[in-house]
Design a protein that fits this description.
By secondary structure, the protein is of the alpha/beta class. It is about 25% helix and about 25% strand. It contains 3 helices and 17 strands. The chain has a 6-stranded mixed β-sheet with strand order 3-6-11-14-16-17. Strands 2-5-10-13 form a 4-stranded parallel β-sheet, covered by helices on one side. A hairpin with a 3-residue loop joins strand 8 and strand 9. It is globular.
């Protein structure tokens, strides 16, 4: 189960009430910074924008590919370790606005993680060090360190131990 905080709302659906949960000016600022970062091919600048304007925790030498969409409302809830790659057009969501409630959850991505293109990472998910997420995966639950996951729904393709065995057999 994902680790999310649940907040009930009364009246209209939660999305119609979003400015009760996050300020309009914060959303405008985040939108402008995120759009600039999405189209910027210069990796150090992307990381600088994310750290300094969105308060994300981004490790050294982490690479966000073109068109990555970080959460518009709560990007400060995203942590990415060192030497990780976030693939083209991946979406990192730390919020879900539903009919009767909204949910918030941190995203924690470890060191040397490879996330393929067109993935969606849902709120409250942790991805362990040296894990690999196949392109097009919807990450709905935690990913163990060193494992290889893929698909929709996401499933474990190889565990860390199986990956190590495969690597060792190639070296032999």
């Amino acid at each position: 189960m994902r680790k999310t905080e649940r907040h009930s709302v009364e009246g209209s659906n939660a999305l119609w009430q979003m400015y009760k949960t996050v300020s309009f000016l914060k959303v405008v600022k985040n939108f402008l910074v995120i759009q600039l970062a999405r189209y910027t091919p210069w990796l150090p600048m992307k990381n600088w924008l994310y750290k300094n304007f969105l308060n994300m925790k981004v490790g050294d030498k982490t690479a966000f590919a073109l068109m990555v969409m970080v959460d518009l409302m709560f990007p400060e809830r995203i942590t990415v370790g060192n030497d990780s790659v976030i693939g083209y057009n991946t979406t990192l969501l730390t919020h879900e606005y539903l009919i009767d409630e909204y949910r918030l959850g941190d995203i924690k991505i470890g060191d040397q993680v490879m996330i393929g293109a067109n993935c969606t990472i849902l709120p409250g998910v942790s991805i362990g060090d040296r894990a690999t997420v196949a392109a097009g995966t919807v990450v709905t639950k935690d990913v163990e360190p060193g494992s290889f996951v893929g698909g929709n729904p996401m499933r474990v393709i190889f565990t860390k131990e199986e990956m190590e065995q495969r690597t060792q057999s190639r070296l032999d």
